[in-house]
């Protein structure tokens, strides 16, 4: 039981990082992306490749993963963010579909459908982090660091510019804000931070393949943000914990057919988001759409 709880804790921490980083652009910049799993996967494959071929040091794996995800995000952000938000959603969906194909077919780097196996545990100053307990501590520390970074950014002048653009692009433009540059920078930061979770995920699982980075993962991360509360610090973490604990809780309900648990989960995710949008648009933690601009701190 202890091993199960530690494993669940690690996964919640890593997905919370993904939710926090997606919330950075969704909640504060009003940029909705369906490609966050791409940056998660890019970080995982980049980190795994470095660990398998060069070094498993966290000081090599993580920066490499962040650089790769940041570079990929530029390919999405530079053309898409020069137009209105709905075009970015379409562009991000296109990138998600394209990336899944690349992950599945680029066998020399990703291992194809079979994935990459035997990924060594992450190394910190000569100490290998392989036990669930040690990795849980590492994942919590990393989550705290990512939350602190996003909090500092949101409270900075850059964060205020993001919220100004979210609330009214025309007003922000009138005040001389470079909207395309600010949006692009926010997407790059979000992607780079998401890649941290990817590289740690690869080291923790010791095996990765394309199935972990498909469209349903991007939808799940978005659901975590929306259900927890967009534009809040705690909301994405609450959403990640809730949606990862839910499958385990459902499996203990004996009257539910175990073969249909996955479908039931999807129904509950969709129903939960629909109900929240109607009765509590700010999410579980949020206090309402009108207040998220002031209540995120």
TrEMBL record:
Keywords: Cell membrane, Membrane, Transmembrane, Transmembrane helix. It is found in: Cell membrane. The chain crosses the membrane at residues 6-25, 32-52, 58-81, 88-109, 129-154, 187-207, 213-230, 237-255, 261-279. InterPro entries: ABC_transp_permease, LivM-like. It is a multi-pass membrane protein. One of its GO terms (cellular component) is plasma membrane. Its main location: membrane. One of its GO terms (molecular function) is branched-chain amino acid transmembrane transporter activity. This is Branched-chain amino acid transport system permease protein. It comes from Rhodospira trueperi. The lineage of its organism: Bacteria, Pseudomonadati, Pseudomonadota, Alphaproteobacteria, Rhodospirillales.
């Amino acid at each position: 039981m202890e091993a199960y709880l530690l494993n669940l804790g690690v996964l919640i921490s890593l997905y919370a990082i993904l939710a926090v980083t997606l919330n950075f652009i969704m909640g504060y910049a009003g940029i909705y992306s369906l490609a966050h799993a791409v940056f998660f996967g890019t970080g995982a494959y980049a980190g795994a490749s470095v660990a398998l071929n060069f070094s498993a040091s966290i000081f090599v794996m993580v920066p490499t993963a962040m650089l790769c995800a940041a570079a990929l995000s530029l390919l999405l952000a530079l053309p898409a963010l020069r137009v209105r938000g709905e075009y970015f959603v379409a562009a991000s969906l296109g990138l998600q579909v394209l990336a899944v194909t690349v992950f599945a077919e680029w066998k020399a780097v990703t291992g194809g459908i079979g994935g990459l196996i035997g990924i060594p545990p992450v190394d910190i100053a000569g100490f290998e982090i392989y036990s669930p307990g040690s990795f849980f501590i590492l994942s919590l520390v990393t989550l705290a660091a990512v939350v602190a970074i996003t909090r500092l950014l949101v409270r900075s002048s850059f964060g205020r510019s993001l919220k100004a653009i979210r609330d009214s692009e025309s007003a922000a433009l009138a005040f001389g804000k470079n909207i395309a540059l600010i949006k692009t920078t926010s997407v790059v930061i979000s992607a780079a931070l998401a890649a941290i979770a990817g590289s740690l995920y690869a080291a923790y699982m010791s095996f990765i393949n394309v199935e972990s980075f498909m469209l349903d993962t991007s939808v799940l991360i978005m659901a975590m943000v929306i259900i927890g509360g967009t534009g809040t610090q705690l909301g994405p973490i609450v959403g990640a914990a809730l949606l990862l604990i839910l499958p385990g809780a459902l499996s203990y309900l004996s009257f539910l057919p175990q073969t249909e648990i996955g479908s039931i989960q999807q129904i509950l995710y969709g129903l939960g988001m629909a109900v929240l949008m109607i009765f509590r648009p700010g999410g579980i933690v949020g206090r309402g759409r009108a207040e998220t601009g002031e209540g995120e701190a």
